[in-house]
Amino acid sequence: MAGASAHVGNGLGLRLRRHRQDHRAAGPGADHRRLGRLEAGRAGRQHRAGVHLSGELVRDGRRGLSFPRDRDQGPLDRGHRPLADRADTAACRGGRGGRSREDPAVTLDSLERADTGIDYVARAEALAPKIEALADDIERFRRLPPALLADLHAAGMFRLLLPRSQKGAELDPQTYFRVIETIAKADASVAWCLGQAAGCAMHAAYLDPPVAWKMFGSDPQAVLAWGPGPKVKAVAVEGGYRVTGTWSFASGCRHATWLGAHCPVYEADGTRRRDPDGQPIERTMLVPAGEVAWTDIWNVIGLRGTASDAFSLDDHFVRHDHSVTRDFERECREDGPLFRLSAMAMYELAFSGVALGIARAVLDAFIDMARNKVPRGMRSPIRDNAVVQSNMAQAEVRVRAARLYLLHAYDEIWQALRAGGRFTIDQRITVRMASTHAIHQARDAVDFAYNAAGASAIFDSHPMERRFRDIHTVTQQLQGRLSHFETVGAYILGGDPDLTFV
């Protein structure tokens, strides 16, 4: 995979270019024009090299299975972790020459650059036992506890995709995925909040540097959260906007320092403001968390700890330089390869990482239980049941395959971006397909284990119960929509798909 060309994204098992040519012959739609403008803005820029992810594969001790691994990590430390955890957590570290696992605390001073040797995966592993011990409290209070928040901040977990210029980690996708997946094995709500905050923090790259520094660089506990709002507006006035509306599903909003309010922009006369191509303009307005009105809406079956509540603004003034157009190339101030990926692509990666982390934890819990549980009316443990054995093997291989394909896709794209390429529509389609597939393969694996576990899994005290509810909440979110496969299929077949969420 090393030295891949800018077009390597087409080598992921689908040959999309010939279909794209057929599609273009029919004339691109508005969504294609929008993405085309994004891609065109990337041409000719000078790009800073990022973390090198080699194509070297390493054995993980599981009868020849191999996983991608950084070239400069040093020897694997497999220890005595569960079956499917050994290579996954050791395989790819965030820092070069990472710190010891016994030293999880890290001050923000050491986060000024991401290449100072910080091993973010090891830090996530060090935090995981404490997170899992707090899972019941996170669920009960529908919040991340203050003490845990302090530990997450100290370890830099809210700065994973923040630009290095703002004292962020600016991680490569593979390392970022492994951090999120590791945390998700312990508690999905915490991992979800970190993934949401990371995608939001990427937009520091689109702010004027002094404004970004005020929001992020100067505040070691900065967190940006946001969510959609169906009936909202920003009216353009001198120096900024008057913003009105209610926004919900703002995961992590209760521990956020800033909130983002996505708005269509209107002129003073009530007409929509449009760009030079005639397209309606939308901007995200950034306001201090203390300036909004809250509504507690998050009484849900899963991911309860994310506190994805609603907030409101009423004719609230927001300065123009405190607003961004999301993923708009012309406003991006950073030139690293991470910022040639879209925030959407990193949300896809994070939330599929949450799903796969849940699945891994559930399968491991089931393996432990199946060795000992003898169901009522039977004479041997569950593990001796031929149907369970077959389904276990299929669940295992599907989760591993979905995970590996997802990481392979992002690795090839990352190599192309590091080589100066841009994030193409073909590549966007690939990661949309890979991430949605991973989420649903994870769900299917959890369903198998939950059903095979019998009545034991229905109790609050069982490790599967909360995770079963969590995975079925993940699939209900935008990233888990089955309609994404329709989009991918239409594109492959040369149709004119809606690329809004690509």
Automatic annotation (TrEMBL):
One GO CC annotation, please?
cytoplasm
Acyl-CoA dehydrogenase/oxidase N-terminal domain location: 127-203
Highest taxon above the source species: Bacteria
GO biological process: any one? fatty acid beta-oxidation using acyl-CoA dehydrogenase
> What Gene3D superfamilies does the database record attribute to this sequence?
Acyl-CoA dehydrogenase/oxidase, N-terminal domain, Butyryl-CoA Dehydrogenase, subunit A, domain 2, Butyryl-CoA Dehydrogenase, subunit A, domain 3
Asked whether the keyword Oxidoreductase is assigned, the reply is: yes
Tell me where in this chain the Acyl-CoA dehydrogenase C-terminal domain is found.
350-476
Q: Where is this region: Disordered?
A: 1-35, 62-103
Q: Where is the composition biased (Basic and acidic residues)?
A: 62-88
InterPro entries recorded: Acyl-CoA_dehydrogenase (IPR050741), Acyl-CoA_DH_C (IPR013107), Acyl-CoA_Oxase/DH_mid-dom_sf (IPR046373), AcylCo_DH-like_C (IPR036250), AcylCoA_DH/ox_N (IPR013786), AcylCoA_DH/ox_N_sf (IPR037069), AcylCoA_DH/oxidase_NM_dom_sf (IPR009100)
Keyword annotations for this protein? Oxidoreductase
Pfam families in UniProt: Acyl-CoA_dh_2 (PF08028), Acyl-CoA_dh_N (PF02771)
* SUPFAM superfamilies in the cross-refs: Acyl-CoA dehydrogenase C-terminal domain-like, Acyl-CoA dehydrogenase NM domain-like
What terms describe the molecular function in GO for this protein?
acyl-CoA dehydrogenase activity; flavin adenine dinucleotide binding
PANTHER family membership? MEDIUM-CHAIN SPECIFIC ACYL-COA DEHYDROGENASE, MITOCHONDRIAL-RELATED (PTHR48083), NRGC PROTEIN (PTHR48083:SF5)
Spell out the family assignment given in the record's similarity comment: Belongs to the HpaH/HsaA monooxygenase family.
- Write the protein's name: Acyl-CoA dehydrogenase
Source organism per entry reads: Vineibacter terrae
